[in-house]
Amino acid sequence: MKVFAADIGGTNIKFGISDEMGNFEEFHETDSESDKGGPFILKKLETIISEYPNIDVICISTAGQVDSEEGYIIYANDNIPNYTGTKIKQKLEERFQVPVMVENDVNAATLGEHYFGAGKKYSNLIFLTYGTGIGGGIVINSGLYKGLNGVAGEFGHMVTHPGGRSCNCGHAGCYERYASTTALVKEAIKVNSEYKNGRILFEKMAHDIELQRVFDNWTEEVAIGISNLIHIFNPAAVIVGGGIMEQNLSVIKVSEKVQDYIMDSFSDVKILKSSLGNKAGLYGAVSLQMK
Ligand SMILES: [Zn+2]
Fold first, then answer.
1. What are phi and psi of 27, to 5 degrees?
2. Rounded to an integer, what distance in angstroms lies between the CA atom of residue 254 and that of residue 128?
């Protein structure tokens, strides 16, 4: 079986051709030009797909809240203007006459890690991705838990600091205001204005005690959120993704602190680094046809 898989984000579209087991024979990445809006992105996707005449199924991971039954975008923010309401499944099935499956990108990344990545061995797991914000997904008994509206796993908006920093969700004290990469960099810049991104932080870490303190505080914030989730879900594994978690130091520190916060009966949990990185969503897209 020939699977066309794509992962649509605000910055780029990743796509490729795979067999039904996630063995990619080709992989590409192109600028999504998201400022041109949802209709433009759909047209661009159609043009790309039309270059592959013999595909059997189309699997799409995309930014935005997705109704995966109907395959349309319930809501997308201004990163992709006019994307809300886009009927991806209907449009692509009409045009290409093959089954089309659509899922939200973080849910897809969760499935990617579960079927093909760090979570392969585990039927119960939590996935979190740390970046500008914090997103995530939940796998229970080998299936994605989606909740009433398909938007479960908004871990970034758990309140860890009541009355704390205001958040773009309209509330205050949210986890991502303290534990995202953005939050880490904001604190690091106060130490030294050159500390503008994760890469520089890890270069300078060994020689800057103040920066080590900031990093230590940040891992504490990360660990608090993860510990709460472990107490709720008792997962076999927590998989952490996002550029900052590619550093072993981040995962080791967070793991240590999580162990300090959780009850002994939960301590078998493994904190694991994402193994698919920024391709997790694309792999997750392929998994949509496996059911
Ligand atoms: Zn929030």
1. -145, 135
2. 13
Q: What is the CATH number of the domain that holds 92?
A: 3.30.420.40
Give average pLDDT by consecutive 10-residue segment, the chain, 291 residues.
96 96 95 95 97 96 94 92 97 98 96 97 97 95 92 95 95 97 96 94 95 98 98 98 94 97 97 96 96 73
Residue 41, H or E segment: helix 38-49
Residues 253 and 127 placed together within one structural domain of the fold: yes
Residues bordering ligand 1, an ion, CB closer than 5 Å: 157, 167, 169, 174
Tokens matching residue 119 = 């979570």
Write the pLDDT tens digit of every residue in 203-259: 999 999 999 999 999 999 999 999 999 999 999 999 999 989 999 999 999 999 999
At 78, list the tokens: 């201004």
Q: Is residue 207 part of a domain?
A: yes
The 8-class DSSP code of residue 236 comes to: S
- What spacing in Å lies between the alpha carbon of 171 and ligand 1's midpoint? 5
Same domain, 134 and 245: yes
